[in-house]
Design goal:
single chain
């Protein structure tokens, strides 16, 4: 009796796994099949709107994730090593972009950096206007990508055995050298994971970009915005654009898996 119950639950477990895999892969597979069935991918790559949106998405997301990495690693280290209550509250606020609707993020950034915003009005004195520019795209991507990177790096740093730092301190390494020679090498996998997650979130950003940067072809129209725009006039092209993003994301996952294997 007990053996039959155990077998039953074992089968139920595999059924749920099949349902989950099907739910994720079936829509993606159908989309890819439709994109490749009529040689739409080759035609799309010759479309100037597609190439412009793809180039803009890749450039802005790479710039955004580079800035996130440079700022995020020290911030993650401070949060992980500090026992300050203030720092813990800061930690909570950093994760706000994860739960905030992207449209709300866009409005908040527009009110901050707009002409009448507390930051934007001072930038206007120097002739600098951020909304509806490529810079706005990058800022929106940084805003939404930062917590994903920070979470991963913070987890990696918190899992480092403190004995390593104690040994480094006993050998005369100051905090800066311990950070570069001990913490960074041991948290390398977490940094790679966080960078991949943050980059994926940045390149897929839609709502905040639309509100804060607009949908200007060649200047602020990223791939997600181009998908929405093209689907209104050319549904097949929208499918192909979606397939391109899927292929890029899959390539990143493969590279990430290879880096995990060799590090």
């Amino acid at each position: 009796m007990n053996k039959n119950i155990s077998t039953y639950f074992q089968n139920i477990k595999y059924i749920t796994l099949i349902i989950y895999i099907s739910f994720i892969l079936l829509p993606i597979g159908i989309l890819l099949f439709n994109a490749f069935s009529n040689n739409n991918l080759i035609n799309a790559l010759n479309n100037p709107i597609v190439t412009s949106a793809l180039f803009l998405s890749l450039i802005t997301s790479l710039i955004a994730i580079t800035i996130v990495i440079v700022i995020g690693i020290p911030v993650a280290h401070i949060i992980t090593k500090s026992n300050s209550r203030f720092i813990k509250y800061v930690d909570y606020t950093i994760e706000l972009p994860i739960i905030l609707p992207p449209v709300v993020v866009g409005f908040a950034m527009l009110m901050t950096f707009g002409r009448n915003g507390p930051v934007g009005k001072y930038l206007m004195d120097f002739g600098v206007s951020i909304p509806f520019t490529t810079i706005a795209v990058i800022l929106a991507q940084i805003f939404v990508a930062f917590p994903f990177f920070l979470r991963s790096v913070r987890l990696g740093l918190s899992n480092i055995n403190t004995d390593f730092e104690d040994i480094g301190s006993s050998l005369g390494l100051n905090p800066l050298k311990r950070f570069f020679y001990i913490n960074l090498p041991l948290a390398w996998k977490s940094i790679i994971n966080g960078a991949a997650l943050g980059w994926a979130r940045a390149i897929s950003e839609f709502g905040a970009t639309l509100v804060f940067a607009g949908n200007l072809t060649g200047e602020t129209q990223t791939m997600p915005l181009a998908i929405i725009s093209t689907m209104e006039s050319d549904f097949e092209l929208g499918i192909t654009l979606s397939a391109i993003l899927i292929l890029i994301s899959t390539l990143v996952l493969i590279l990430l898996a290879r880096l995990r294997h060799y590090t």
